[in-house]
Amino acid sequence: MTSNGWLQISLVLMIVLILVKPLGAFMARALSGERTFLTPVLAPVERGIYRISGIKPDEEQGWLGYALSMLAFNALGFIVLYAILRLQDVLPFNPQGFAAIPADLAFNTAASFVTNTNWQAYGGETTMSHFSQMTGLTVQNFLSAATGMAIALAITRAFSRSSAASLGNFWSDLVRSTLYVLLPLSIVVALAFVAMGLPQTLDASVTATTLEGAQQTISLGPIASQEAIKQLGTNGGGFLNVNAAHPFENPNAISDYLNIVSMLSISMALLYMFGALVGDRKQGWAFVATVFIFLVAGAGIIYWAESAGNPVLTSLGFDSALGNMEGKEVRFGQAMTALYAAVTTGLSDGGVNGMHGSFTGLGGLVPMFFIQLGEVLPGGVGSGLYGMIVFAILSVFVAGLMVGRTPEFLGKKIEGREMKFTMLAVLILPLVILGFSAVSAILPVAVASIGTSGPHGLSEILYAYTSAAGNNGSAFGGLSANTPWYNTTLGIAMLLGRFGYVIPVLAMAGSLAAKTRVSASHGTFPTNTPLFAGLLIAIILIVGGLQFFPALALGPIAEHLAMLAGQTF
User: Fold this and answer.
1) H or E stretch including 259?
2) How far apart are CA 139 and CA 315, in angstroms?
3) What average pLDDT does the chain have?
4) Burial grade of 110 (CB within 10 A; 0-12, 13-18, 19 or more)
5) 215-219 and 412-413 beta bridge pairing
6) Cis peptide before 40 (omega within 30 of 0)
7) Residue 27: strand, helix, or coil
8) pTM of the model
9) Coil, helix or strand at residue 208
């Protein structure tokens, strides 16, 4: 590790920290329907959308109505995207002449982009037409992110209101999230990417002559626009197969910085927005501090592990001073690859600028464990906020047990009904991840897709279902996942990880909204202090460790110990 590497990491995180308050304050006003500097331009558009769609933004919904509207909207999005992929060969803007997507891959991809996962079991530039990329995938990048933001707003209202029967209007929350936040930021970031050299064209490809005189076909397309919403919406799906390691998606160090800042900006700002809307900005900063501690620690562990090198490669004659450069872009090095890996898995983004499967065992463990923690660090756009609230409720419940008091969070008493919904949400990820991984580790048709034997092979399977259920989308890279088994089961894991988690969270929000908000007393455990942030960190680690440590011990931990002993598989 070098001081230059830590300086780069610090600079990126400092930029994000500077953006948290102004962006969070703007979103608090815009998503509450208050006037902002964009109102004169966008308010007529917003009203026009309501008139055309028949939406009555003032008609609020209870938690069940809100949940049913969200499910119906996403079910329709799934059907439309599936149809686009299946009919790709007869739809316009297909200059490459790509065939229709097979049914199992279309199911997997539709589930992936509707759930904000963006897992890709295909090579984008060799499989998807421009129409599929723009009308199918990019549209869902906006809508899946906006869905997460809408749900986060509903959860926020559960704490900001007292004795309320409703959580807001899903349709107006969806429109405002898209119109006032995602769309304007995407335009700005896309233009910045174009200025840096990212292609934005409807041409299929360009032919270049190599230094040896051979002809090479280089794929093109509307890359900059998809790259912008990919990162801002924590989607992560790449237009090109190698994602942000490709120079057309990530051409230089500045674009790499912009990628990471874009990934973190909205999710971090939502934590501040939560504090602003519930009337306790210190609570938002407590969440921000929790996230930053995890990100710095995670990036530091990956950076240290990769800089320490691989004894197996050293024994083959590689310079140990270079560390482990396998699977990393020389343009970015170990420091920025480590930060990118920690951020993209702490979020539900899944974009990568290096190959996670080429990390050391310890270096690969951190991204996997970050996803298994529920991706609350800071998690996806919207989903990270309500995931953090779930852990906050669990933390105050544990604190209440220790002191013998009824737990409270932001003036709402946490009782048995809320804890049942909380535990239903917490248990969905281990159930899906460990259940499907266990079956796939013994099923011959699933084992046949493993690229490496031993602990790394188990890690490939475990990471795939972790990424799917956690709605992340990144991969170790050695698993041949484009098979009927993996396309189907990973698609089911994505749907359960998104909607199986959201429904109990919304039910919990409905229960909390109906409660009277009480003022803090001398006996109330404050949740906006460093003490609470420390407890929250401990609860997140303990829950994640209890659920996943045995599986991690058989995969990345065993692999790292074998590497230190000079053993290969």
Assistant:
1) helix 253-277
2) 49
3) 92
4) buried
5) unpaired
6) no
7) helix
8) 0.94
9) strand
Instruction: Name residue 216's beta-bridge partners.
Output: 208
* Distance from the Cα of residue 146 to its chain's centroid: 13
Using the structure block, give the residue that is written with the tokens 């002809």.
Answer: 215
Structure tokens at 542: 């303990």
The enclosing H or E element of 106 equals helix 103-114
Tokens of 175: 């429109």
Sign of CA dihedral 524, 530, 531, 536: positive
Distance between CA atoms of residues 482 and 171, nearest Å = 35
Query: Which residue in 131, 134, 129, 127 sits closest to 108, CA to CA?
Result: 127
Contact assessment for residue 255 and residue 133, using Cβ atoms and an 8 Å cutoff: no
Q: Which residue has the tokens 């048709």?
A: 445
Outline where DSSP puts E strands in 182-302: 205-209, 215-219
Report the interhelical angle of 139-160 vs 383-403 (nearest 10°). Answer: 30
At residue 532, the 3 state secondary structure works out as helix
Taking the CB of residue 42, how many other CB atoms lie within 10 A of it?
Answer: 17
> Alpha-carbon distance 189 to 224, whole Å?
9
Q: How far is CA 353 from CA 24, 91, 138, 373, 378, in A?
A: 27, 32, 20, 22, 19
Q: What is the pLDDT of residues 389-427, one digit of tens each?
A: 999 999 999 998 887 777 899 999 999 999 999 999 999
**What pLDDT score was predicted for residue 569?**
64
User: pLDDT tens, 477-486?
Assistant: 889 999 999 9
| DSSP β-bridge partners for residue 413 | 408
Q: What is the largest CA-CA distance in the chain?
A: 79
Per-domain residue ranges of the chain: 35-205+216-279
Strands 408-409 vs 412-413: parallel, antiparallel or unpaired: antiparallel
How many C-beta atoms lie closer than 10 Å to residue 448's C-beta?
10
**How far is the C-alpha of 96 from the C-alpha of 104, rounded, in Å?**
22
Tens-place pLDDT, residues 95-133: 889 999 999 999 999 999 999 999 999 988 889 999 999
Supply 556's token pair: 């990345």
Q: Distance between CA atoms of 154 and 164, rounded to whole angstroms?
A: 12
User: Which one, of 473, 355, 384, 380, lies nearest residue 108 by Cα?
Assistant: 473
